[in-house]
Amino acid sequence: MTDKVIRQKDDHPPILLGSRLSQAFEHLEEMIRERAYQIFLDRDSAPGDSMADWLQAQSEVFKPIELAIKEQKHSVVAECDLKGFSPEEIEVEVQNGVLKVFGSHRESSTRKKGKATESRSENLYFFQSAQLPVDVDLEESHAKLFKNGKLKVTLPKSSGKTSGKK
């Protein structure tokens, strides 16, 4: 699948509908792997297992989001709450009938404490995927990130042409 920019219905920046998620996931998988290994080392001789370490690391790296999928008469609509993220930080992918929503955001803050300046930054990541109930037409898809942080992705049902289930 080639990358496609989903234009928002207003003048806001576009949300990318693409297939570049694998690049971001390689980096995040490495972060999770390193954190899981650190959890293992911190456990020392205490009982535990590698799967629990991995799941704990994954929960620390990703911000949890809830992705709601609704099948309507002519389309499938996906919605999730992404407060604090901008359209440039969000990527949506549909591949093999699965909708994937991914994003990364860097928060930075600086405050003065007397003569010293304290700087803090944090990277936030989210990822959620869901099986689509029907084939969708990617060419007519669009997304909108509302001011309240709600992302709405509208995927018209396929009429047999370019399908989201390949």
Describe this structure in words.
- With 166 residues, the protein is α+β, with helices and mostly antiparallel strands.
- It has a domain at 4-18 and 64-156: Sandwich (Immunoglobulin-like), CATH 2.60.40.
- Helix content is 21%, strand content 40%.
- It is built from two helices and nine strands; from the N terminus they run E-E-H-H-E-E-E-E-E-E-E.
- It has a five-stranded mixed β-sheet, with no helix packed on it.
- It is flat and about 60 Å long.
Total helical segments: 2
The CATH class of the domain at 4-18 and 64-156 turns out to be: Mainly Beta
Low-pLDDT runs: 1-8
Radius of gyration from the alpha-carbon trace, in angstroms: 19 Å
CATH topology of the domain at 4-18 and 64-156: the name is Immunoglobulin-like
CATH architecture type of the domain at 4-18 and 64-156: Sandwich
Helix/strand/pairing class, anyone? alpha+beta
Quick synopsis:
The chain has a domain at 4-18 and 64-156: Immunoglobulin-like (Sandwich), CATH 2.60.40.
Describe how the helices and strands are arranged:
Layout lengths: L3 E3 L8 E3 L3 H23 L6 H12 L6 E4 L3 E7 L8 E6 L2 E16 L2 E16 L10 E4 L4 E7 L10
Helix pairs in contact: 1-2
Which terms would index this structure?
single chain; 166 residues; alpha+beta; Immunoglobulin-like; four-stranded antiparallel beta sheet; 2 helices; 21% helix; disordered N terminus
